[in-house]
Amino acid sequence: MDLESRKYNIIQELFKVKEESVIYTLEQVLKKEKIESIDIPENLKKILDKSLTQIEEGKTHSTEEVMSRVKDKFNLV
To answer: Per its UniProt entry, which superkingdom is the organism in (predicted)?
Structure first.
């Protein structure tokens, strides 16, 4: 079965759905696919990967710490 036929079959099945929760779940899956299909530049991917690694390693600062450092650095009140 080709891709177009599979899509058509899914649409037919979708019309049979009675529960709103099923529709909601399908919407979430489609939104996730849309987000994942965004083309992210390689340099940004590397930065994001490094950031996620730092988070996993606990190398983070609280909002209060960051705000305090910014205020000190830029002499803000």
So the answer is: Bacteria
Which residue would you say has higher pLDDT here, 21 or 38?
Answer: 21
Q: What mean pLDDT comes out for the span 6-35?
A: 87
- Whole-angstrom CA distances from 25 to 28, 32, 54, 55 are 5, 11, 32, 29
Q: What is the DSSP string of 6-39?
A: HHHHHHHHHHH---HHHHHHHHHHHHHHHHHTS-
Instruction: Indicate the pTM of the whole model.
Output: 0.41
Contact 76, 70 (CB under 8 A): yes
* DSSP tally for the chain: helices H, then strands E: 4, 0
Residue 28 pLDDT > 90: no
* Widest distance between CA atoms in the chain: 66
Which residue ranges make up each domain of the chain?
Answer: 3-73
